[in-house]
């Protein structure tokens, strides 16, 4: 996902940047991005080779401007990038990136900024760049990301057919730089009504106004039976879908309106005006070039800003920044109302709190009746779900779980939540099943991401538990791997079909492949004596691969037999033929030979990359054990491949040893 050829990917030669605004000193993320971009924050008086940094056209900017003029040194103007954070900066969230301009602020039309220079002079004709731009635009819309993304995409928009008028914060530098004031906003509202007689007018309140930080240009006095304010945290992309026209002075939402396919009417002179993508009341005469949406986006979002990757502590591409933001946004949207959780064993509660309780601490209540009346979203551990848990979201370990066993109380790095069913139970549709169907076709950027993920997984020899181990020497010729499972596991109980024991699976595989080398691999939990399913396989298998590294085994076999094991999915990633006797989530899509009964609703052919995207990118949530933040799958893959994963706590190690002594009572901690 990282394209190091980007201008955004490498620091420039370090220069001293003198600042006179406390925010540069107190905001560690801003300091770090500037440092990685080649600037050294300094205090005092600048010399002839130094620079003065100011925050846009903020009220404090005059201090730096005065020093720069007196010392005859250049001014560098710094602003938040157009994808910023969940909440406005006044709420304390660190920025995802910065716009650093050596000419003037990107929103100041009085003379060309570095951004305007890019848009007017850069060729913007590189096919790879423009393909990336199209993919990134689609991803931002798909993930419902905006400059501030703390909104609920499920809030319905008003009935379509309205005109959208965008408010801004009173006195905002982007408004005043365009010559905007209250009268300009009133003029815009008047023209919107004149040009769309009879249409409803929706005025979108700025998030900072809605949250009480700053006053807007419109208020309730500007409404009537035809004009209404909308100050709920509704997705701007949802609003764009239902709008027949969009009016703005200079809001960043005008830029997003362009991405959504609108040609907004501008009453200021924002950076995105003048390129043939807007209808401008006050044109910037020097802007005469016509750009496509992808060209405008590439310049403003890929070539101009500096994006930051908090997981690797480096500058990164827009694509990496988008996935960082998408993971953070998804976690907030899922969790901010606060969960009540049932069926969660004591040892699981701390890691669950880290993943799901970051914004609002979780409550734990095993009584369905009292859990329901909390009014919170409700989750239950999938294996503990019972009749009384109707309506609860199911939770389970993800497919890149950890370095170590869940039964050994190693905390997970990925978890799945499912509001329809759960992935291993074929008796009803799961959210994963819907996601797999959604990925029947992939955009080029999605294909590229899934390919890169598969390459990283196979290169790192990664699997669900990543236990390591040696691989026995195997004879030449056809090799068939049979993977055992925990025989009382929920996936066996719900989806195994007629073959429900490891021995019966091995008997079937041996009968189907009498002349092949048959290798039997017991489940790690069974090998550790923590779960049921052990038996003597030596009379049926040519090789019993106890404690072998499953990833290394998969590289050496031609065919895999399984009831419902996740190892079948891991085998598909490595090009191994997979035979299923049950109905695991990856069966029924034309990728496996299915001997069991697969639900008839799975009748679409899905590419293996579509399956990968749904299963490893779309469905799970990932937790970075280093930064303790929600993260994209690629970060967990890197942590696992590099061994940068903490083991279980001392208390969990003791408890794990005790459970090994009392394995027959495993239900007490599972």
The tally of strands reads 26
Radius of gyration (Å): 28 Å
From the helix content, strand content and strand pairing, which structural class follows? alpha/beta
* Overall pLDDT score: 91
Give the low-pLDDT segments.
2-11, 651-664, 666-670
Helix content: 25-40%
Number of helices: 24
In a few lines, what is going on in this structure?
This protein is α/β, with parallel strands linked by helices. It has 24 helices and 26 strands.
Walk me through what this model shows.
- The chain is 33% helix and 15% strand.
- The model is unreliable at 2-11, 651-664 and 666-670 (pLDDT under 50).
- The strands form 4 sheets. A 7-stranded mixed β-sheet has the order 2-1-3-4-5-12-13, sandwiched between helices.
Helices and strands in order:
Layout: E1 15-19, H1 23-26, H2 28-36, E2 39-42, E3 51-55, H3 61-71, E4 75-80, E5 97-101, H4 114-121, H5 127-142, E6 162-166, H6 173-176, H7 182-195, E7 201-204, H8 207-210, E8 227-230, H9 236-242, E9 243-248, H10 252-259, E10 265-266, E11 279-280, H11 293-303, E12 306-309, E13 314-316, H12 318-335, E14 340-342, H13 346-356, E15 363-364, H14 368-372, E16 378-381, E17 393-397, E18 414-418, H15 431-438, H16 444-459, E19 479-483, H17 490-495, H18 502-512, E20 517-521, H19 524-527, E21 543-544, H20 550-554, E22 559-562, H21 567-573, E23 577-580, E24 593-594, H22 608-618, E25 620-623, E26 630-631, H23 633-642, H24 650-661
Parallel strand pairs: 1-2, 1-3, 3-4, 6-7, 6-9, 7-8, 9-10, 10-11, 14-15, 14-16, 16-17, 19-20, 19-22, 20-21, 22-23, 23-24
Antiparallel strand pairs: 4-5, 5-12, 12-13, 17-18, 18-25, 25-26
Helix pairs in contact: 5-11, 5-12, 15-22, 16-22
């Amino acid at each position: 996902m990282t394209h190091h050829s980007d201008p955004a990917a490498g620091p420039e030669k370090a220069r001293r940047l003198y600042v006179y605004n406390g925010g540069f000193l107190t905001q560690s993320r801003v300091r770090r991005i500037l440092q990685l971009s080649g600037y050294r924050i300094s205090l005092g008086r600048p010399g002839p080779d130094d620079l003065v940094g100011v925050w846009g056209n903020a009220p404090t900017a005059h201090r730096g401007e005065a020093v720069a003029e007196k010392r005859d040194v250049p001014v560098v103007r710094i602003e938040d990038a157009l994808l910023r954070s969940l909440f406005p900066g006044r709420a304390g969230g660190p920025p995802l990136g910065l716009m650093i301009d050596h000419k003037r602020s990107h929103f100041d039309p009085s003379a060309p900024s570095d951004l305007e220079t890019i848009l007017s002079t850069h060729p913007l004709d590189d096919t790879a760049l423009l393909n990336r731009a199209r993919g990134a635009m689609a991803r931002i819309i798909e993930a419902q990301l905006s400059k501030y993304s703390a909104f609920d995409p499920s809030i319905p928009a008003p009935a379509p057919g309205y005109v959208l008028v965008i408010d801004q914060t009173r006195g905002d530098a982007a408004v005043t730089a365009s010559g905007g004031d209250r009268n300009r906003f009133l003029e815009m509202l008047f023209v919107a009504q004149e040009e769309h007689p009879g249409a409803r007018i929706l005025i979108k309140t700025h998030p900072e106004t809605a949250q009480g930080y700053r006053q807007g240009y419109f208020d309730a006095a500007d409404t009537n039976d035809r004009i209404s304010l909308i100050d709920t945290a509704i997705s701007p992309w949802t609003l764009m879908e239902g709008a027949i026209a969009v009016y703005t002075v200079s809001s960043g939402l005008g830029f997003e309106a362009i991405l959504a396919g609108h040609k907004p009417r501008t009453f200021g002179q924002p950076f995105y005006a003048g390129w043939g993508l807007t209808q401008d009341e006050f044109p910037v005469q020097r802007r005469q070039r016509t750009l496509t949406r992808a060209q405008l986006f590439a310049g403003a979002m890929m070539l101009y800003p500096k994006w930051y990757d908090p997981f690797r502590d480096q500058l990164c591409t827009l694509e990496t920044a988008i996935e960082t933001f998408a993971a953070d946004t998804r976690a907030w949207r899922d969790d901010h109302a606060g969960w009540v959780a049932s069926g969660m064993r004591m040892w699981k509660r701390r890691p669950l709190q880290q993943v799901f309780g970051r914004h609002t601490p979780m409550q734990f209540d095993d009584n369905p009746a009292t859990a329901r009346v909390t009014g919170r979203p409700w989750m239950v551990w999938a294996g503990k779900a019972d009749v009384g848990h109707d309506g609860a979201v199911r939770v389970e370990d993800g497919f890149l779980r950890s370095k170590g066993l869940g039964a050994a109380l190693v905390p997970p790095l990925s978890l799945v939540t499912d509001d329809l069913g759960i992935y291993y139970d074929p008796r009803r549709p799961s959210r994963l099943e819907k996601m797999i169907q959604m990925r029947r076709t992939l955009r080029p950027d999605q294909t590229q991401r899934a390919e890169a993920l598969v390459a990283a997984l196979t290169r790192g020899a990664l699997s669900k538990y990543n236990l390591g181990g040696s691989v026995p020497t195997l004879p030449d010729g056809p090799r068939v791997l049979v993977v055992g499972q925990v025989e009382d596991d929920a996936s066996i109980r719900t989806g195994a079909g007629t073959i429900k024991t490891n021995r019966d699976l091995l008997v079937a595989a041996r009968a189907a492949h009498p002349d092949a080398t048959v290798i039997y691999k017991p489940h790690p939990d069974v090998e550790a004596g923590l779960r049921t399913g052990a038996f003597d396989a030596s009379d049926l298998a040519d090789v019993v691969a106890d404690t072998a590294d499953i990833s290394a085994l998969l590289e050496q076999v031609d065919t895999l037999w399984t009831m419902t094991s996740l190892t079948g999915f891991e085998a598909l990633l490595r090009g191994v033929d997979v035979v299923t006797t049950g109905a695991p989530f990856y069966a029924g899509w034309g990728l496996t030979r299915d001997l069991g009964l697969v639900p008839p609703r799975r009748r679409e052919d899905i590419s293996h990359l579509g399956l990968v995207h749904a299963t490893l990118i779309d469905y799970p949530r990932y937790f970075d054990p280093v930064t303790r933040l929600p993260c994209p799958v690629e970060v967990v893959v890197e942590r696992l491949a590099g061994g940068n994963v903490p083991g279980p706590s001392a208390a969990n190690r003791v408890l794990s040893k005790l459970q090994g002594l009392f394995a027959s009572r495993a239900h007490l901690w599972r």
